[in-house]
Amino acid sequence: MLNYSIQQISDIVGGHITGQQSQSIINRIAFDTRQIHHAHEVMFVAMQGMNRDGHNYIKKAWMAGVRCFLIQHEVAESEFSESTFIHTSNALDSLQVLAAYHRRQFDIPVIGITGSNGKTIVKEWLYQLLSPTIDIAKSPKSYNSQLGVPMSLFTLKPDNQLAIFEAGISKKGEMEKLERMIRPSIGILTYMGAAHNQGFESKAAKIKEKLILFKDCSTVIYHNKGVTGEIFNQLYPDKNSITWAVDREADLIFHLLSINSHKAIVTLDKRGEQFRIEIPFSDDVYLHNAFTCITYLDYAGYSMEEIQDMMSQLKPLEMRMELKTGMFNSVLINDTYNSDINSIALAFAAARKEAVKRRMIFIVSDFEFSDNHTHNDYDILVELVNEFEPLWFIGVGETIRRISTRLGKTINTLFYHDTDSLLNGIDITIIRDSVVLLKGARKYAFEAIVEKLEQRAHEAELEINLSALQHNLTLYRSGVKPSTKVMVMIKASAYGSGSIEVARILQQQGVDYLSVAYIDEGIDLRKAGIQLPIMVMNSGLDFVERMVEYDLEPEIYAPAQLHTIIQYTINNRERIKCHLKLDTGMHRLGFTMDELPGVIRQMKENPQLEVVSIFTHLAGSGESLFDEYTHYQARYFEEMVRILNDGLGIKPMMHLLNSSGIARFPEYQYEMVRLGIGMYGFDPSGYVQDLHTVMTLKARISRIKRIPAGSTVGYDRRWKAERESLIATVSIGYADGLRRSAGNGRWSILVHDQPAVIVGSVCMDMTMVDVTDIEGVKEGDEAIIFGAVNRADMLAQIYETIPYEVFTGISNRVKRTYILE
Predict the structure, then answer these.
(1) Element (H, E) at 571
(2) Helix 466-477 crosses helix 499-508 at what angle (to 10 degrees)?
(3) Quick check: is 491 catalytic?
């Protein structure tokens, strides 16, 4: 935690101060106004990003109570009374300088972790293994970027005995900056895969860049596989390294003895000695991360007996925040990823963002390994709870109940010794119309509380990864000119994912416009607190008054519709923002060239309509076969816009490109682009790489039966077992959106990460799969219908359709769960 005066900070970063001279002490840094708390202790950092300028949020931060600002552009300081401004040439660079200075104040071992995958898991597991006996600082969640690393370093405090920080990069030149801040004494290199390959000329170049983190490390731990060891020895021929490997030469050699769906038993060959270790995971990725942790524990001096005991108790990481629908019209936020004080503030802020028109209830346990937490951590918790003012604060554990007398009088409180006491004693009706945040240490098993409070629903579930959606949005934005706005399509309930939650994320990400298909979708967004401009594509003739009431902007595409809206503006003396749709070759909606004179005449006679944009729809932007037609549409569009602009004396925004168009025709970006299916993880053109999977459709195994050879399965006996078989019935059917055309061997569902082919016909509510060759399958196990491996576009091929139809065909009875990693 920081403890610097404003003058000290200015001196450290080489800035100069204007505004009110202040002796205030800064304890916290904020760059996002939605996460400001204890405002009098905060310095707001106004950074200039690709899509957002922090200087535009200074007023909001000031209104939240912040009075110290680190800026890189001039601002109207007179508007912000009692404020102090530190001026620098680059706010992010200055933040990194401050972080590096703060790091130098601590003479403790620092573990620096980098790699393509597994950084967060290894960090969290080491924390889980070591923190019962050591006070540890660590990166919150996956804070490993140029901004995340300094924010991680600011968590360092005098009580810490060890620090563990992640470093993530995506292109050459980034690691040097991270190394200057973290200055690790011990290095860990995790799995080197294909993530972020596009930022480097080769995998070897990526490895070299990542190894820069270990420049001054005394010891480096890595997996001795591929070219990693060779590159490491070239860069650091004299540096001490400890390597591990599976069935090959290394300092620590692991051999897999046995494995099932729940655990693996390995032998560790350590310089001729052999030890048997049980690891409560069987997935290759988890095992490799566990081997890395074992190697560190051995380096740190733990005995094999201690390591064996520690590894047997290793717990899985959820590593994400889940939003679920609760009973009594409530929303549940399940954030049991960790329970340290740094993540508490983030969780409280997430709850407040979700609680637009709802009350808040916080259910919080003792901190993990509570004996090692200082009284100061609980003091901070008290301050946070009093600041966020939930309707109820519910504590679980022996230590947390000590804060009961220190909470505000408006906050209702309940305290329970353990989770079972809460489950047996709580009146669950108190969650009605509330946002319920659950923030618990692992030993308290808060998943039981989630299960009790969650709305009982069909077992099929569509999981929407909002972090993946943000990644895809950023990826497309990186190819759009800074001056070009982005409109995001969230029609059809955001392609089946749920428009309100998606819209909230998009609003937080600073997109410029939303577009929905029908007025009811726009009204729902307004009622949920969405304030972005919203274009309605099919506004109809009878809903103009409601469009005005909810500040929605109609797409106007036909003469009769234009006449109706103009008549409304005349009769009600209202001015309406609108978007003109032109038909340049799609031949669906839109004004034709012949209709433009009439449009110009009507609008000149009735100037109450404000044309915000003029646009058209490309018919074949994803297919190179139609490239000439796309260029023709663009030229025709430009000519039609010229006629309208000249006739009306206006110059509104133009937009033409959809997801495929953004990727393939950057010359037609104009003033705005429209992002649709690409944000949800699919590029029809195939041009955009590294899109992340946003939607995963899951269900559960309801029943398992062993049937003899010759038995048939399903209606009309369409599948016959050629051998004794194990058949699992999965809780999803064609009424949920899994079509009958996926049946009879055409599609496979993943069970334990292995394909289980659909046997027989898909039923209305159930589907049968063959799990004969999958070990350890049991009733209640998860089954993935489509996701990152068995992708929705592959299922679309089976259906002979497109991913859009797969997504929008998921029934409303399938519950939606939202996660933030």
Answers:
(1) helix 559-572
(2) 50
(3) yes
Report d(CA 20, CA 86) in Å as an integer.
11
For residue 342, CA distances in Å to 139, 365, 438, 463 come to 9, 15, 15, 27
Per the CB < 8 A criterion, the answer to whether 490 and 517 are in contact is no
Tokens linked to 700: 């559960």
Closest by CA to 469, choosing from 493, 501, 491, 447, is 501
Question: Beta strand pairing status for 25-26 and 4-5?
Answer: antiparallel
Query: Could you tell me the fold of the domain covering 323-456?
Result: Protein-Tyrosine Phosphatase; Chain A (3.90.190)
| Overall residue count recorded for the chain in this entry | 821
Q: What is the DSSP letter of 372?
A: G
Q: Which two tokens stand for residue 117?
A: 């995958």
SS3 for 124-153 is HHHHHHHCCCCCEEECCCCCCCCCHHHHHH
Query: Which residues lie closer than 8 Å to 345 by C-beta, 6 or more apart?
Result: 35, 37, 384
Closest CA to 228 of 283, 202, 189: 189
Pairing between β-strand 16-19 and β-strand 84-87 as defined by DSSP bridges: antiparallel
Query: What pLDDT was estimated at residue 758?
Result: 97
Phi, psi of 709 (to 5 degrees): -55, 140
Q: Write down the catalytic residue from 60, 715, 720, 778.
A: 715
Per-residue DSSP letters for 587-653? -SSSB-GGGHHHHHHHHHH-TTEEEEEEEE--SSTT-GGGHHHHHHHHHHHHHHHHHHHHHHT---E
Lookup: tokens for 28: 């916290």
* Separation of alpha carbons 499 and 481, rounded Å: 26
* Beta-carbon contacts of residue 643 (< 8 Å; ≥ 6 apart): 593, 596, 600
Q: For the domain 695-820, what is the CATH superfamily, name and number? A: Lyase, Ornithine Decarboxylase; Chain A, domain 1 (2.40.37.10)
DSSP string, 489-521: E-HHHHHTT-HHHHHHHHHHTT-SEEEEEEHHH
Asked if 389 contacts 410 with a C-beta cutoff of 8 angstroms, the reply is yes
N-to-C CA span, the chain: 24
Selecting among 210, 491, 577, 581, the annotated active-site residue is 491
Contacts of 738 (CB under 8 A, 6+ apart): 697, 732, 762, 767, 785
CATH architecture of 106-312: 3-Layer(aba) Sandwich (3.40)
How confident is the model over 309-348, as pLDDT tens digits? 999 888 776 556 788 888 888 999 998 756 667 678 778 8
In CATH, 465-680 is 3.20.20.10: yes
632 is catalytic: no
As given in the structure block, the two tokens for residue 749 are 């569902």
Residues near 772 by beta carbon (within 8 Å), at least 6 away in sequence: 723, 724, 725, 726
What pLDDT, on a 0 to 100 scale, did the predictor assign at position 194?
A: 46
CA nearest to 361, candidates 444, 435, 439, 426:
435
Question: Whole-angstrom Cα distance, residue 431 to residue 450?
Answer: 12
pLDDT for residue 318:
59
Tell me how far apart the alpha carbons of residues 644 and 592 are, in angstroms, rounded to a whole number. 12
Dihedral of the CA atoms 374, 378, 381, 383 (nearest 10)?
A: -110
Of 660, 578, 672, the closest CA to residue 627 belongs to 660
Q: Which residues pair with 111 in a beta bridge?
A: 164, 186
612 alpha carbon, distance to own chain's centre: 32
CB 665 within 8 A of CB 450: no
Contact 766, 729 (CB under 8 A): yes
What residues have CB less than 8 Å from 95, skipping those under 6 apart? 13, 29, 45, 47, 70, 147, 150
Q: Where are the domains positioned within the chain?
A: 4-96, 106-312, 323-456, 465-680, 695-820
CATH architecture of the domain with residue range 4-96 = 3-Layer(aba) Sandwich (3.40)
Q: Which residues of the chain have pLDDT under 70?
A: 50-51, 193-200, 261, 317-320, 337-340, 342, 368-376, 456-458, 540-542, 821
Strand partners, 815: 461
Question: Looking at residue 340, what is its pLDDT?
Answer: 66
